[in-house]
Amino acid sequence: MNDDARGKPVSRNTAGVTRLAPSPTGALHLGNARTFLVTWAIARRAGWRIVLRVEDLDGPRVKPGAIESCIALLEWLGMDWDEGPIVQSHDPEPHVEAMRSLARGGHVYPCDLSRAEIEAAASAPHHEPMSIAGGTPSAPASGREARFPPELRPPPSAREFDERESNWRFAVPTGAAGVVRFDDAFAGPQALSPADTIGDFVVWTRRAQPAYQLAVVADDHRQGVTDVVRGDDLLDSAARQLLLYRALALAPEPRHWHLPLVVGPDGRRLAKRHGDTRLDTYRTRGVRPERIIGLLARWCGIDADEMNAREFSDRLDLATIPRSPVVMRPEDERWLLEG
Ligand code: GLU
Question: What is the pTM of this model?
């Protein structure tokens, strides 16, 4: 097979590297299975290496047994990988080294302001004109993190990083320097400004652990990841991660492919509220992997009943993947269980 998923000829080589990066904080469900399968298929068609990286740094939310269960289900669906599983928490040195470098460069600072203090500062009167002028509102929508305004950061200075029990934040560039432009291979050209949406974000947590944004950048770089394929809920994160690449002077930056998510009939991201769409549950109920892949394939615009992972990768055409969220409907589940 000489065509990559976009139909352009590519030579089969191992120059590209991607990763499957499950978080063991929840069970694998149909939505994230679709993203993993598309990632795997793009990589196998293009001849990239695949690294399986378990992102277990979100300590309190990691569920016992979730790593093993997720790996077993990926294999059950027919996916494989060339390296790993690499468990993120097992090798903290690259994360600490990245922090040292950011601190020496004056890009990060320790910060112990509480969420309430940040929200109070973000909604202080001098921020209001920005919202009125049509910028991103400073006050968070419920459950969203408040934008951390640059006024709250200390003056820039080179620091020694220490793993004290404190958050460290990244001083996000503001103005034109803070606009991150990249061409997403799936979502198209982007110009995102983390300074206006999230502000100075946490890169190291007071639990003495790297935050997701930092760990991803340090690990993608050391694992040689050239292509990041994932759900478009992480599109905003890509801009933060590219700012970290630049502050750390890491090159080359990866190419991004952000795919629309699967949502429930209410338009919200597939989750427990939509019923039990865990792969494990379907497997226990006797649903075969070919049937699951058949449904995931239809959600990628492939007209099919059942197929295995290899057939899926042969038939995947990025041009037919819907550019907007895919809705899982009750009849999808009925079809799965019928087979
Ligand atoms: N571990 C993340 C997740 O499961 C994915 C992170 C990434 O792809 O950068 O949502």
Answer: 0.90
Alpha-carbon torsion, ordered 198, 203, 205, 211, to 10 deg: 90
Reported as type and span, the H/E element at residue 119 is helix 115-122
Cα-to-centroid distance, 314 and ligand 1 (Å): 25
Q: Please tell me the distance from the alpha carbon of residue 2 to that of residue 97, in angstroms, as a whole number.
A: 40
For ligand 1, say whether the CB of 56 is within 6 Å of any of its atoms.
Answer: no
Model confidence at 14, pLDDT cuts 50, 70, 90, reads low
Closest among 110, 163, 119, 159 to 138, alpha carbons compared: 119
The answer to whether residue 236 sits within a structural domain is: no
- Please compute the mean of the pLDDT values over residues 29-45 and round it to a whole number: 96
119 lines ligand 1 (CB under 6 A): no
Please work out whether the CB of residue 290 comes within 6 Å of at least one atom of ligand 1. no
List, for residues 164-181, the tens digit of each pLDDT value.
779 999 999 999 999 999
CA distance 173 to 196: 10
Distance of CA 229 from the midpoint of ligand 1 (Å): 9
CATH number, domain with residue 52: 3.40.50.620
Q: 42-75 b/e with 16+ CB inside 10 Å = b?
A: bbbbbbbbbbbbbbbbbeeebeeebbebbbebbe
Report whether residue 209 contacts ligand 1, using a CB cutoff of 6 Å: no
Contact 87/54 with Cβ under 8 angstroms?
yes
User: Do 222 and 92 form a contact (C-beta atoms < 8 A)?
Assistant: no
* 135 and 29, same domain (yes or no): no
Nearest CA to ligand 1 atom 6: 21
